[in-house]
Amino acid sequence: MSKKAKIAAGGVAVGLFLLIWLPWWAAFLIVIGVPAAAYLTLDPSQRRKLRRVSRKELGR
Predict the structure, then answer these.
(1) How confident is the model at residue 45, as a pLDDT?
(2) CA 32 to CA 26: how far, in whole Å?
(3) Which residue, among 30, 28, 31, has the nearest Cα to 8 in the 3D structure?
(4) Whole-structure pTM value
(5) What is the full per-residue pLDDT of the chain (60 aa) written as tens digits?
(6) How far is 52 from 14, CA to CA, in rounded Å?
């Protein structure tokens, strides 16, 4: 199993766990808020690099 597949599986497991123990809206805020907060902590040059890599993976 690749590293990205392991991360995706872990994310799904955490999401399901949160849905069981928290109201759906709280789990949704956590699942959306954590990656958004991580993105906002990057400095502008890191954000540009991340966008450039994402576009290459999409085939643009």
Answers:
(1) 92
(2) 10
(3) 31
(4) 0.54
(5) 788 888 888 888 888 888 888 888 887 888 788 889 989 999 999 988 888 887 666 655
(6) 28
Whole-angstrom Cα distance, residue 12 to residue 1?
15
Q: Which residue has the tokens 């902590």?
A: 41
C-alpha–C-alpha distance, residues 16 and 12, integer Å: 6
Identify the helix (H) or strand (E) that includes residue 52: helix 44-58
What are the structure tokens assigned to 10, written together?
């872990």
SS3 letters across 20-35: HHCCHHHHHHHHHHHH
